[in-house]
Amino acid sequence: MRVPLSWLREYVDLPATETGRDVQAKLVGVGLEVETVEQIGAGLKGPLVVGQVLTIEELEGFKKPIRFCTVDVGTANGTGEPQEIVCGARNFAVGDHVVVVLPGAVLPGDFAIAARKTYGRTSHGMICSGDELGMGDDGSHGIIVLPPGHETGTDAIELLELVDEVLDIAVTPDRGYALSIRGVARETAVAYGLPLSDPALLDVPAPNAHGYPVKIADPRGCDRFTARTVTGLDPEARTPVWLQRRLQKAGMRPVSLAVDITNYVMLELGQPLHAYDRTRIDGPIGVRRAAQGEKFTTLDGTARVLDAEDLVITDNRGPIGLAGVMGGANTEIADATADPGTGRVSGTTDVVIEAAHFDALSISRTARRHRLPSEASKRFERGVDPEAASAAAQRTVDLLVLLAGGTAEAGVTEVIAPTAPRSISMPADHPDRVAGVRYGRETVVRRLQQVGCDVYGQDELVVTVPSWRPDLAYPNDLAEEVIRLEGYENLPSTLPKPPAGRGLTDRQRLHRRTGRALAGAGFVEALNYPFMGQAVLDQLGLPADDARRTAVTLVNPLSDEEPALRTSLLPGLLGALRRNAGRGSHDLALFETGLVFRPTGHEHTAARLPVDRRPTDEEIAGINATLPRQPRRVATVLAGAREQSGWWGKGRPADWADAVESARTVAREAGVELTVRGDRHEPWHPGRCAALYVTVDGQEVLAGHAGELHPRAIKALHLPERTCAMELELDVLEQGTAPLVAPRISAFPVATQDVALVVAAGVRAADVEAALREGAGELLESLRLFDVFTGEQIGEGNKSLAYALRFRAGDRTLTVDEATAARDAAVALAAERTGAVLRGA
To answer: Which end of the chain, N or C, is more open, meaning fewer C-beta atoms within 10 Å of its C-beta?
Structure first.
């Protein structure tokens, strides 16, 4: 909302010394977001005067039309003689009143004016356009042609209000009243402790049976409709300069007198209005819901297909306006046009003024459905004062009579759905308890009365909120009003005191250690929105009965393409990988930790919790029962090179083993051992997929999967070839976490024994490793697979697994016999369980 300071001063008698910056500071102090203060006309210096064009001579021989004009500027030039000016514009004629800047003046942008020779003549000044004076968009982009009646030589700086300050306010959704000069003036008056001259305090005639007929079919969508009629408008009447300038400063473009007046009153009072050409209305005006698929052409010339929830203004023919959003082309105010033959001017002479109050939610949905935001819808969806409709209609009628020579008909139509004033009960000390500051009853009552509330009672206050504040609905809303007017800066800063002995939970510690460990292993964290759609699950190739396809769907999703909460971290993480690869990053290793959402079948809309007290344990349990299961997971994805090539040697591409190793990195932080087995699980490649198990209370529990993605999934998601991924459930790892034991460092040397075992190709290395660990006994310190070999030497269908076994005792140096015996025991058990044969034996 752009608020000219000169306009604001009409309703609040601010001290003459107060600048826009001063007002900005005051308004920010009471909670309005004043983003900037624009200095209009900064650097402008006269003489800048009204002139009348006396003669125009067309100069020939130039690439563009050039005119040599003489202009009467009165005595502003010191001689009273006509001023000679060269001008290239053509939108003015002899006799027109224009704005002339004389030598010695300075225009905005530090543009000094002096007499100069151009196009063979000497130009003593300029005939000005709105752009040159910094007036903004007036819709013409040409020379300013003033309405008749202005005396030549008059100071145009004062006439056009070229020097002003404009406050640009970012109005939050809960403060719709601030989308008007009236609303901002009320806040300014409170901030300065000054009286408000309310522009809505007008004498409005009582409704009668002679007004234009109106029929409301949907009183819930439209609870108030005021109609007034003005006849005999002069179609040639032009918008006066002062009104045009106020619209321009407020960010609106002048159009025509009738439309400009409705826009002006909307800015002044906050009530959107619409003017209909009465001769183009067929029968009574109605308000109803649109029929599904009904067609209607709005003022912008666009044919629209209406929805059954759209609220429309109608006559006997059908829709003539999209309620609260935009009028229709079939009742548009006609501009004045002259008949070429007779010279007679025609245009709209009789208008019906609509000032109505519509349901905010309905208008908001209609504007978004049709992608048609307007100044009217912006106000209705934030809340318009329903009591201002009659005053706004009267103000519009008065201006049409004054400026367009119209006559106000005696008929006044008001259709009102009865509503009771809204009252809120609140303890008098409630703002004190919310703010932690003692204000006292007197201060609370005074501040609430300043915002327009009626307050009754002593210890328990009954507060009747004003019609222009639909955002005040609960005691906390009233407390906020008291606190903001008393000053947020006056609230004491008190640091919370955490109770002793509390720190991070085990779950939080594991979450942080996991992130640090993966970052240390070369992964980059990528946080993604927790939303997904069914399309990505199809691309991953998940079966129709996969549990990950059962998701919680949001009522109001941010995107229709992702309406559900994620059941896996992979869709978002793979999307991040694809975006980075598409932007030229080819060697990628990303990770994410976060919640996934797995429905339990008991989800439903939760009850609304109270705000005036702490919820009971039963209420909290009821809320928790509606939530899906939310396990915490970690996922990694890799593509491109895992080790770069260089002078040190060749690089290595990322493969399934790196994904498995990232899982082991996480498991080490949790203090658990992973058991790795081959598996088939979408979206991984069936031959390069590992199931990851953790032992919990003696039972193996599936914790996640890792490996290379299936080629079909890679193609469908447009991922780099051989992309690998891992997903692991941290909550399962936390269950398998053993008590942390400090490592024991032995002072005795280690004994290393290597063994190479030949097994069938189908035997899993994890099974061989498990047998070796168990057979080696307590002397085994570590076991590492360092080579896998296949070839003719070991026979077809076989493979050789080479392990390095490290033995150490904590109390002595092991002998060769002891280490060899432990190795032989390990080999014997592996042979018994997996059929392993010692290579070369």
So the answer is: C
